[in-house]
Amino acid sequence: MAQRLKLSLACWDYDRTRALADGSVVPDGIDLIHHTLPVEETFFRMLRYREFDAAEMSLSSYTVSLLKDSPFIAIPVFPSRMFRHSSIYVNANSGIEKPQDLIGRKIGTPEYQMTAPVWIRGILSDHYGVDAASVEYYCGGEEEPNRDEKLAITLPEKFHIHRIGPEQTLSQMLADGEIDALHTARKPSTMDSRPGTIRRLFPDYKEVEQAYYAETNIFPIMHTVVIRRDVYEAHRWVARALFKAFEEAKRRALENYFETAAMKYMLPWLVAHVEETIETFGKDWWAYGFAENRATLEVFLRIHHEQGLSARKLEPEELFAPECLESFKI
């Protein structure tokens, strides 16, 4: 019997990856050691110390790493996607009523290289005329002080980045009016603890995000999955084996959304939401694969370069193991 390869994988607890975590989906030829970790911890440990053989990864930080020492190679699996119009928060007394009012303001962001703010800055630039270099950025921990960039970045001089103080948090600064707005992945806690001090720039964000999708056909990608390059170079077949396993885990998760005899999720109108989602996106609304996502990746790589995070504009093909660029049917 051929010996199976032991590989560690760090990934958050998603419905679409749960079959890999519980062992009901087993990648071909691989004994998977699954670590269920918060995304920030996974990214930090993988980028700083390369602790895992494979891991969920910030799409932006991965792109930054490719133009440094390129320690990883990705597969076209996207465990996290999210529209981000809902993730722009403003101080209620800032006088910011429309996107163009952000120009010249103080904008908080936990890390300039975070994928969510990259998409936010790109959307604001492409669709509202708010150039990424037209504001002052304040970076640091959102809820806890002293958050650093996961990877060191060097930006063109036109981008103005400031570190907040060692005792400050962006959530508190936004509520206090020390910054005017916040681009982030998580809702600031002070929006609930200090009601009335913070609001979303787009209160009707669902309608705005639906209009954005109708115009662009983009469902923004937040995270991908990377393999440590030394592991990949020693066992190139691993890329395809993991891709297939992630696809199968996602397929099983999708099946649960079509169960109507007894709903598996605690959402009263889930059936209606699924039907609405299919009408908008099609039956596989969370597509993996290269060809299916090439256009979205092209936009991301363009805005990543425009925002000074990549010295040259990468092509989508440069992100992924070549074994996963083509689709095949059995």
Explain this structure to me?
The chain has 330 residues and is α/β, with parallel strands linked by helices. It has two domains: 5-81 and 221-252 and 286-324, Periplasmic binding protein-like II (D-Maltodextrin-Binding Protein, domain 2, 3-Layer(aba) Sandwich), CATH 3.40.190.10; 85-216, Periplasmic binding protein-like II (D-Maltodextrin-Binding Protein, domain 2). 34% of the residues lie in helices and 15% in strands. The chain has eleven helices and eleven strands. The strands form two sheets. Strands 8-7-6-9-5-10 form a six-stranded mixed sheet. Helix 4 links the parallel strand 6 (106-109) and strand 7. The two termini are 25 Å apart.
Quick structural overview:
Helix content is 34%, strand content 15%. The protein contains 11 helices and 11 strands.
Assembly form of the protein: single chain
Examine the coordinates and then state which fold CATH places here, giving the name of the CATH topology of the largest domain: D-Maltodextrin-Binding Protein, domain 2
Shape descriptor: globular
Class based on secondary structure composition and strand pairing: alpha/beta
Task: Summarize the helices and strands and which ones pair or pack.
Elements: E1 5-11, H1 18-21, E2 30-36, H2 39-49, E3 54-58, H3 59-66, E4 72-75, E5 88-91, E6 106-109, H4 115-128, E7 136-139, E8 160-163, H5 170-176, E9 181-183, H6 190-193, E10 198-200, H7 205-216, E11 223-228, H8 229-234, H9 237-256, H10 270-281, H11 294-306
Parallel strand pairs: 1-2, 1-3, 6-7, 6-9, 7-8
Antiparallel strand pairs: 3-11, 4-11, 5-9, 5-10
